[in-house]
Write a structure and sequence with these properties.
heterodimer, A: 437 residues, 0% strand, B: 318 residues, alpha+beta, 2 domains, five-stranded mixed sheet, 13 strands
């Protein structure tokens, strides 16, 4: 990043209008969202009967999609908070990417959980009659807290950038100018403002870590607080958290590559970033693999009777193809790719990131549904289609729509705000120069 | 011998109590005008046909049949009262596995009385076989009405609740349909109304009662409720009275008696003599439903033809 003039940095990083590719991308996402929305309207009128969920498989891909969203949102706390507090500077250009992934994912996690409710019209009962002893209420509390902390962690570092963008009036449209004014006109780059903002960001970075751990631990407890084989595990909190950091980092790898090549940010997101992020993903994949070994090997060694059918279903039975697919694509292949220096170049790292994200989505499915289809008492006195679960088009449409929605939020964010922090990049370049002298 | 006497005298006492209760209700209806006064209300002519009744003092009296009025249905208790339960009671069920041949009359009666969605059942009758070389048997399950109910623990809105009389019920007007309770219940007794339950307008328009669990509502959870509405009337739950083999016994643990309608036992003696047990005791849920092991059976274990077609494995896992 040497010899970069301040002016050049600003010009490179100011948000750009959608090109042809961008417009097509947005159009596709909007279409997918609309299809999902139509499917949800259909579900609202008919009831959850339009899904493939029944009395045994009472939770399906809505819940695994919810777990996926909560998981991927954890990366915001990892990149912004953990790396900031440990004084790691290489991740600065990635903080905003991580934080917007966190905010949009946690938003869609809340939406998808409402989609899963049999009576979304009674959502207010959670506040009227909420009972603190239910893990669902804990989840509502920590997810709301996490959402607001993440939003603030997105907003505060944006303030100096808003001032820069207000200076470049010719590059913004009218409504965007108004939005910047509304959000950031009070920011005058005063030293007091900087010290206040830094203090606030530090406090938020510290608070977000326990909150982030809570959201995913509590989400794992939605399962681990029951008796069912496959869920009845003390390993679950740590297992979920490690998996969450993995999928989030994989998501960041993908986003880095896309933004870098689309917005021509090669000078800002460098080979070095892919190299370091690739190493982070390898470490997290190994960590998650470790928890997976704990989660499956220990019960498989004992083969207690209720666990037996569940584990056999996963290892060699009807869920074996998805189970091994998820293990391979979310952990083994990314490790194999990213462990080599050549694999940590942008394109292979991007592929590894995609594998992590896709594998992790199916991994969540494997955690949720097979357990429900292996109850303590054998399935009995129900229609034949209650014995199996394969999602209907409505479920796919809604889940894909929600994923498209999350991407749409990220896309629009990058259209309106600089996806790489301008002010911080300038400061760090200056410091860099200073150090050299 | 002594025990026998005790239980006989107890049975007499219960019968007398029921009769006296019935009479009290008859008398209670007549607080303002005596039904025995021909001028009161409807003009009733004596039919000459007499019925013997037991008075409150223990005297047997004769009353003309025409003067007897049927006891009107007690009004449904409010949902606030239904959350509290019947004071001074702790309901329990005993299921005698040696008597069950999977006639499923219990299931039919239950489905009919609660207007359950076709295909779903609150009572399930499992063909069980605990191990390869052990003998298969039929095991009907209701809601276990656990004293440590996992479903109640996880409900975020207090829609499913435990009453002081031990019964676990659902308020379908409050349930948000998250189905956490279904994931939490190890006995798989909860069912979900995935679509409109398809009730007649007359039933669907009734206000929901936690005690009758009627009408079931789209997007909410349903399950066996131990029929507290019947218990309030002094009757037995529908499954108990529908079973021709007397498999189900119902009663009050504080009174220490259970009955299947024709036989009444001291609950503690029955459990002691027949080695009663509860399902999945190791989970610590403390069910209110007890099972008597399938020994000295009344019927051999025979799988019906209708089974197998839609059902799969017959082996139990726990």
């Amino acid at each position: 990043m040497e010899n970069l003039e301040k002016e050049q940095i600003v010009q490179d990083l100011l948000p750009q209008e959608f090109g042809k590719q961008g417009k097509i991308w947005v159009a596709c996402l909007v279409t997918l969202c609309l299809i999902g929305f139509a499917a949800y309207c259909h579900q609202l009128s008919k009831g959850l009967v339009v899904t493939a969920m029944r009395d045994y498989a009472s939770w399906g891909i809505y819940i695994s999609n919810f777990v996926f969203f909560v998981a991927i949102s954890l990366v915001g706390s990892l990149i912004t908070a953990v790396l900031r507090l440990t004084d790691v500077h290489w991740s600065t250009p990635l903080t905003r990417i991580a934080e917007i992934i966190a905010v949009s994912a946690i938003t869609f996690a809340s939406i998808i959980i409402v989609v899963d409710m049999g009576r979304p019209d009674r959502f207010y009962n959670l506040f009227l009659h909420g009972r603190l002893q239910s893990p669902i209420v804990w989840d509502v509390i920590v997810i709301t807290t996490y959402f607001f902390i993440s939003l603030l962690l997105l907003y505060f570092p944006l303030l100096p950038d808003l001032k820069i963008m207000l200076k470049y009036k010719e590059r913004t449209s009218k409504w965007m100018y108004k939005l910047y004014t509304f959000l950031g006109s009070f920011w005058k780059d005063k030293p007091e403002q900087f010290s206040l903002s830094n203090k606030a960001i530090n406090i938020l970075s510290i608070t977000i870590i326990p909150v982030a751990f809570s959201i995913h631990t509590v989400t794992s407890w939605l399962f681990a607080t029951t008796y069912r084989p496959g869920w009845d595990s003390t390993n679950f909190g740590a297992y979920f958290i490690s998996g969450a950091f993995l999928v989030g980092s994989g998501g960041v790898l993908v986003a880095m590559y896309v933004f870098r090549s689309h917005y021509k940010l090669q000078k800002y997101i460098t080979y070095d970033h892919f190299d370091k992020m690739g190493k982070v993903v390898v470490m997290l994949a190994l960590l998650y693999l470790y928890f997976n070994v704990n989660e499956f090997l220990v019960p498989a060694f004992k083969m207690k009777k209720p666990e037996e059918e569940h584990l056999k279903g996963l290892f060699t039975g009807e869920f074996a193809p998805i189970f091994w697919f998820a293990i391979t694509t979310s952990m083994l292949l990314p490790i194999l790719i990213l462990i080599y220096k050549k694999g940590r170049r942008p394109f292979p790292a991007f592929i590894a990131g995609i594998l992590v994200v896709i594998g992790s989505w199916f991994k969540r499915y494997i955690i949720v549904t097979p357990t429900l289809l292996h109850p303590f008492l054998p399935m009995r006195d129900v229609p034949a289609n209650y014995h199996h679960y394969f999602p209907t088009w409505e479920e796919w449409a809604i889940c894909i729509g929600s994923l498209a929605g999350a991407l749409l939020v990220i896309t629009f964010f990058a259209r309106i705000f600089p996806i790489i922090p301008i002010h911080e990049t300038i400061t760090e370049t200056e410091e860099h120069e200073h150090d050299k002298k | 011998m002594e025990m026998n006497e005790k239980s006989t005298s107890r049975r007499e006492f219960l019968t007398a109590g029921l009769l006296a209760g019935g009479l009290a209700v008859v008398a209670g209806c007549s607080s303002k005008k005596s039904p025995f006064d021909p001028e009161a209300g409807d003009q009733v002519a004596a039919s000459g046909e007499k019925v013997k009744l037991l008075s409150v003092d223990g005297e047997i009296i004769e009353v003309d049949k025409a003067f007897l009025k049927p006891v009107p249905d007690l009004p449904q208790v409010s949902n606030e009262a239904a959350r509290i339960g019947i004071p001074g009671k702790k309901f329990a069920m005993v299921i005698d596995l040696s008597r069950c041949k999977s006639l499923k009359k219990c299931q039919t009666a239950c489905n009919h009385m609660h207007h359950i969605h076709p295909g779903q059942n609150w009572i399930k009758v499992y063909p069980m076989q605990d191990a390869e070389h052990t003998s298969p048997y039929w095991q009907p399950t209701t809601c276990m009405h656990c004293d440590e109910p996992p479903c109640v623990k996880v409900c975020p809105v207090d829609a499913t609740f435990k009453r002081q009389d031990g019964i676990v019920l659902i308020d379908s007007d409050r349930c948000i349909g998250c189905r956490f309770c279904m994931a939490a219940c190890p006995y798989s007794t909860r069912v979900f109304n995935w679509e409109e339950p398809g009730l007649t307008k007359e039933i669907a328009d009734k206000p929901y009662s936690c005690e009758t669990s009627v009408p079931q509502k789209k997007g909410t959870v349903g399950k066996c409720d131990f029929c507290p509405d019947m218990v309030r009337k002094g009757s037995l739950p529908h499954c108990v009275s529908a079973c021709p083999n007397g498999v189900f016994f119902f009663g009050d643990m504080l009174e220490d008696s259970v009955t299947n309608g024709s036989e009444t036992f001291r609950f503690s003696d029955l459990i002691k003599d027949k080695a009663g047990y509860r399902l999945m005791e190791d989970l610590g849920t403390k069910p209110s439903v007890y099972y008597l092991p399938p020994v000295n059976r009344n019927f051999p274990f025979e799988k019906h033809d209708e089974e197998d077609s839609t059902e799969n494995k017959s082996t139990s896992k726990s």
